[in-house]
Amino acid sequence: MPLVVALAGNPNCGKTTLFNALTGARHHVGNWPGVTVERRSGTFECDGVDLEVVDLPGTYSLAARSEDERVAAQALASPEVDLVLNVLDASNLERNLYLTTQLLELGKPMVFVLNMIDDAERRGIRVDQGAMEELLGGPVLATIGNREEGIAALKALLASLARGEAAARCRPVAVDYGHDVEGELRKIEGEIRRDETLAATMPARWLALQLLEGSPAGRQAAEESHAREAIGQQVSRSAAFLERHLGQDASTLVAEGRYGFAHGLVKEVATAPVEDRKSMTARLDAILTHRYLGIPIFIVILGLVYSVSFILGQIPQNWIAEGFKALGSTAARHLPPGELTSLLVDGVIPGVSAVIVFVPVIMILMGCIAFMEDTGYMARAAFIMDRLMHVMGLHGKSFIPLIMGSGCNVPAIQASRTIESRQDRLITILVTPLVSCSARLQVYIVIAGTFFTPFKAAMAIVAMHFLGLGLAVLMARLLRSAMFSGPSSPFVMELPPYRLPVLKSTVIHMWEKGSLFLTRAGTTIFAGATLVWFLSRFPGTANPQWTQEYVQQRQAVLALHLPQAEAAGRLRALKLARESRIVNSSFAARIGKEVAPVLQPILDPYHRRPEAWKDVIALTAGFVAKEIVVSTMAVIHQASNQTRPGERLSPLQQALKDHSGLTPLTALAFMVFTLIYTPCLGTVAMIRREAGSWGWAGFSIAYGLVLGWGLAWLTVVAGHWLGFA
Predict the structure, then answer these.
(1) Better-predicted residue by pLDDT, 711 or 198
(2) Order of strands, edge to edge, in the sheet holding 40-46?
(3) How far apart are CA 691 and CA 684, in angstroms?
(4) DSSP state letters, 640-692
(5) Which residues pair with 670 in a beta bridge?
(6) How many CB atoms are closer than 10 A to CB 132?
(7) Distance, C-alpha 589 to centroid of its chain
(8) CATH number, position 249
(9) CA 31, CA 496: separation in Å to the nearest integer?
(10) Partner of 618 for a Cys bridge, out of 178, 373, 632, 704, CB 3.0 to 4.6 A?
(11) What is the helix (H) or strand (E) element at residue 113, kind and residue range?
């Protein structure tokens, strides 16, 4: 069995960076709290020794008030963890050492990593590693995780500990809480040890301190013991004794002991210069977190991010689009006629290409967001939005999942684990799907780019993102008023120092997002395009009479011996007429026409679009994944057949403009409905997991459909009233 090493530390101290460096993994890292919200595991081999590393959520304490803290506390206390790797921010040592005092109570071997030592040295902070090792009872190493400096020495040390060669460097160290507190702790430990199963499950001293502090996790563990009554009575007697004799409650006395230990240790091992001027972080914060300028600056930065993404992404987009056009044309020329060729040329290629063409924009956008995370600005964005969040019924920490939702709603909902209050967490989970994700962005680009000028298209896309955020905040206010009474809990969040991002980290994050889309294109979207092709081709394509009529008409045109250009035009018209006949009599048409009346007030308010059912099919497919909306439209509109030389639009956009019948107004309503109408299947599954109930998942679908239909209908009505067709 490999040695199991658990990474523990405060949020934003570099645990995941070290985890990636040790294991070769590529998990996302960011200069803000809440990036890691569940345990991750990886392995590495050093000097013939196998080790397993577990990356845990960052936590300031093991009191386990939030879901991510509970995950960390349970994992660290479990017998499966052999060694704790305590990651410390070397530039903020005293604050980090409070958690260290709790980790020492676990009684497990520990290694201490002074991460980001370069930041500390730039500030003139010097740490005596030898003295620190003596006081903490475990090896102390300095690292710079984002540059992988010190990682080789850390691996060698862990391998040595696994072989038992450096075991003498690890010895138990306990915080002394004073004569009275220590005496009561021994009494509680004695009751805990009466239950051998409980004592074997977790360290007795750690559990005794948890109970004395009133930790929910500690109480739950004691409640499961057959000695729970004796333990509970002793905890009550000890707490009453301490408050009566020392004048403070037990939790305060324990916290004071930990802070005293941390403060004294820093005085012994670290030296720092006297600050005689404002730091760069303070000077930047004076502007970026300004009471009145903070929000306008944030909006401007977001606008610049989207502008840069679209401008830079346009060039590779064109290359990809041209490549798929050439691939489709080559396949049509060289493959024998038949249904398999039609599946490839009319189904798979246009469906997959309609999604992949937007990968450059998504990658650049995610790279810009990763850059802002790594600099520390995203934590400031949450800070400046805190007041607005509370006014509208959301917790300040809810802003982090809402911003993460612009990439993907699934990890954004998972990030709500950092919120301590269950009702605040539930509200955040229910409104996060309203935030416009990168998959919806593809739909906006296709629709807006088809029916609006470039400037108006950009404004429409930005408006969709702000509409999603606005609706999330508004629905949070309504949900709190109607279903979740009581004020939201206070918001306390660390503002990390500004740091210059590492290019490698940003590029890895960009590649992760791009590879995710490529994976979907190779699985979900491929399957979706195949299914939609089948539904849109049968039973008409198997009708022998229609096939015979088409063959006869084609032979008649060839028999006229017309000039090549005229003959090609007539043959193309015959093919399009046949394809249209097949599609309009297909299974997809039958399904779409049954559902179309529900969406007619939105997509066809003037009853002028006999083919509005095609949009219904695309939106229905979007329940699985929003990317499939684009690929479905590409297949159902036969986009591969619509290319004309010199046309600036993509094949899909050209097909929509020529044949869909959408107007700028109904196109805008289509975008609004796409934004709101229902979470994708993956998001629904994550809601079920994090909320703990299929009822909440069903509620998110139901209210999204009602809200989406209502706002899309209001868009059409308002546009008609203002004179837009």
Answers:
(1) 711
(2) 40-46, 49-55, 3-9, 83-89, 110-115, 140-142
(3) 10
(4) GG---TT--S-HHHHHIIIII---HHHHHHHHHHHHHS---HHHHHHHHHHHS
(5) none
(6) 22
(7) 36
(8) 1.10.287.1770
(9) 7
(10) 632
(11) strand 110-115
> Does residue 603 sit in the same domain as residue 705?
yes
Dihedral sign for Cα 355, 357, 360, 365, please: negative
160 and 73 in one domain? yes
The predicted structure's pLDDT at residue 707? 92
pLDDT in tens, 384-430: 766 666 666 666 667 767 776 776 777 678 767 767 677 878 888 88
187 and 165 co-located in one domain? no
- Determine, yes or no, domain membership for 493: no
Does the structure show a pLDDT above 80 at 168?
A: no
CA 221 to chain CA centroid, nearest Å: 32
If pLDDT is split at 50, 70 and 90, which confidence band does 659 have? Answer: low
Mean local confidence (pLDDT), 94-101: 87
Tokens of 193: 């040890």
DSSP-derived 3-state class of residue 382: helix
- HEC letters along 589-615: HHHHHHHHHHHHHHHCCCCCCCCCHHH
- The two beta strands, 3-9 and 83-89, are parallel
pLDDT tens, residue by residue, 235-267: 888 888 888 888 888 888 888 888 888 888 888
CB 690 within 8 A of CB 414: yes
Q: Which two tokens stand for residue 311?
A: 């401008």
- Residue 711: pLDDT over 90: yes
Say how far apart CA 375 and CA 284 lie, in whole Å.
12
**Domain tally for the chain?**
4
Q: What angle do CA 467, 459, 471 make, to 5 degrees?
A: 0
Both 386 and 444 in a single domain?
Answer: yes
Q: How far is CA 530 from CA 94, 279, 594, 682, in A?
A: 59, 58, 22, 20
* Residue of 455, 503, 447 whose CA lies nearest to 650: 447
440 is in which domain, residue-wise? 303-482
Domain C-terminal end among 137, 169, 201: 169
Q: Give me the residue label for tokens 């606005």.
A: 470
Residues 593 and 692 in one domain: yes
In a domain, residue 609? The reply is yes
Burial 654-667 (b: 16+ CB within 10 A, else e): bbbbebbbbbbbbb
Q: What pLDDT does residue 490 have?
A: 52
Q: Are 520 and 355 in contact (CB under 8 A)?
A: yes
Please report the DSSP string for 411-476 in residue order: HHHHGGGG-SSHHHHHHHHHHGGGS--HHHHHHHHHHHHHHS-HHHHHHHHHHHHHHHHHHHHHHH
User: Does a structural domain hold residue 702?
Assistant: yes
Least Cα distance to 580 among 571, 568, 589 occurs for 589
Q: What is the pLDDT of residue 28?
A: 45
Do 331 and 471 belong together in one domain? yes
Which of 175-184, 397-406, 632-641, 697-706 comes out lowest in average pLDDT?
A: 632-641
Burial of residue 551 (CB within 10 Å: 0-12, 13-18, 19+) is exposed
Q: Cβ distance 3 to 161 under 8 Å? A: yes
Distance CA 110, CA 13 (A): 17
Q: What is the pTM of this model?
A: 0.58
Contact 137, 110 (CB under 8 A): yes
Task: Give the sign of the dihedral formed by CA 71, CA 76, CA 79, CA 80.
Answer: positive
For residue 122, pLDDT over 90 is answered with no
Return the axis-axis angle of helices 294-334 and 359-375, rounded to nearest 10°. Answer: 150
> Which of 122, 147, 169 marks a domain boundary?
169
Looking up residue 145, the CATH number of its domain turns out to be: 3.40.50.300
Query: Is 152 found in the same domain as 201?
Result: no
User: Do residue 129 and residue 190 come from a single domain?
Assistant: no
CA distance 55 to 19: 6
Secondary structure element (H or E) that encloses residue 484, with its range = none
Closest-CA residue to 495 (of 63, 2, 11): 11
Q: Is residue 288 part of a domain?
A: no
